[in-house]
Write a structure and sequence with these properties.
By secondary structure, this protein is mostly helical. The protein contains 1 helix and no strands. The protein is rod-shaped and about 50 Å long.
């Protein structure tokens, strides 16, 4: 049961990292289009 929990936590971490990268990408694109 602990292993499953760890796998889920790692998956969540990866999802969060991916979301942050996507957000940064959009943020940079918006800055470039505005500036």
């Amino acid at each position: 049961m602990e292993k499953d929990f760890n796998k889920r936590q790692i998956g969540l971490l990866k999802d969060v990292q991916l979301a942050q990268e996507v957000c940064e990408l959009y943020y940079v694109q918006n800055l470039q289009s505005v500036g």
